[in-house]
Amino acid sequence: MSERLAIAGSGAIACGLAAVAATRGEVTVFARSDASCDKATAKVHAICEKLGASVNGNVRVSRDPAALHDATFLVEAIVEDPETKATFWKGLNGHVPPDAVLATTTSSLPVGDLAQASGHPERFVGLHVFNPVPKMDLIELAFPPEASTSTRQRARDLCEALGKTAVEVPDTPGFVVNRLLFPFLFDAVRLMERTGLDAEAVDTCMKLGAGHPMGPLALLDLVGLDVSAAIGRTIEVEIPETITALIAAGRLGRKAGHGFHTY
Questions:
Q1: Is 108 a catalytic site residue?
Q2: Which of 128, 131, 228, 261 is labelled catalytic?
Q3: How much is the pLDDT for 33?
Q4: pLDDT for 121-131, tens place per residue?
Q5: Please, where are the H alpha helices in the chain?
Q6: Do the first three CATH levels of 5-168 and 177-256 match, i.e. the same topology?
Q7: How many CB atoms sit inside 10 A of residue 79's CB?
Q8: Which of 3, 76, 80, 140 is flagged as catalytic?
């Protein structure tokens, strides 16, 4: 891996990406609090151990922005909220080299808007990786119009170095996968609501009958019901009432131990 990669965030995407990168070279994880640092350290090391314990030494976790000073490729993987992401990018100036590529892992937000918030749209890219990162091969690349030829090539080269397949997609809400996937997932919820089928029955039908590796309701749990609802709002798809009720009850999916299923 020729880039000096840094990743901002402590969630599943940030930690999964850091662990994959650590199998190719050194990577820095930037977290914004002591609690986030502890969370990221534990999560990255747990994933690394599954991939090969020797990669643990390739991961540095820090809450000090100075840790980003030598990064040549910075990936933001924080909460899927436009204001939070924009604030992060606006506050980043001076902490990374002037030629570093700036990337966001947003799954649905307009890349062009975040590129403008960064102040450097010519070196900005949407780098949409999929969860769980070690197992999912695709990365959707979405570029703002101002992105330079160098930025585009370096983004593709990084994907290749990480062992991923990059597909350039338009900067449209949800890109390709989520724009097609979430109407289907939400329709599975509505079918459950209409028929009274339980989640296990719906998921079993789609796994055994359609060859899906995971049922639609289990997939919503994996993504997180709060994140799924946010994606639905961004792509302007109506959120099923059951999802809204589960979120209100704190049943956010696998990360909370409960969603459509219990974990």
A1: no
A2: 128
A3: 87
A4: 999 999 999 98
A5: 12-22, 34-51, 82-90, 111-118, 149-161, 177-195, 199-210, 216-223, 225-234, 241-248
A6: no
A7: 13
A8: 140
178 has catalytic annotation: yes
Is the torsion defined by CA of 25, 128, 10, 87 positive or negative? positive
Q: Is the pLDDT of residue 254 over 80?
A: yes
Quickly name the fold that domain 5-168 has: Rossmann fold (3.40.50)
Rounded Cα gap, residues 156 and 151, in angstroms: 9
Within 10 angstroms of residue 101's Cβ, the number of other Cβ atoms is 25
Instruction: Compare 39 and 238 and report the one with higher pLDDT.
Output: 238
User: Is 128 assigned a catalytic role?
Assistant: yes
In this structure, are strands 73-76 and 5-8 parallel, antiparallel, or unpaired?
parallel
> Once rounded to an integer, what is the mean pLDDT over residues 8-13?
92
Tell me if 99 sits within 8 A of 123, measured CB to CB.
Answer: yes
Which residue, 86, 150, 72, 141, is CA-closest to 119?
86
Give the model confidence (pLDDT) of 59-113 as tens digits: 899 989 889 999 999 999 998 889 999 999 988 877 899 999 999 999 989 999 9
Q: Which residues pair with 8 in a beta bridge?
A: 30, 76
Assign domain 177-256 to a CATH class. mainly alpha
- Do the beta carbons of residue 102 and residue 117 sit within 8 Å? no
Give the start-to-end residue ranges of the domains of the chain: 5-168, 177-256
- For the question of residue 140 being annotated catalytic, the response is yes
Evaluate if pTM is beyond 0.85. Answer: yes
Q: Which of 10, 36, 58, 107 is catalytic?
A: 107
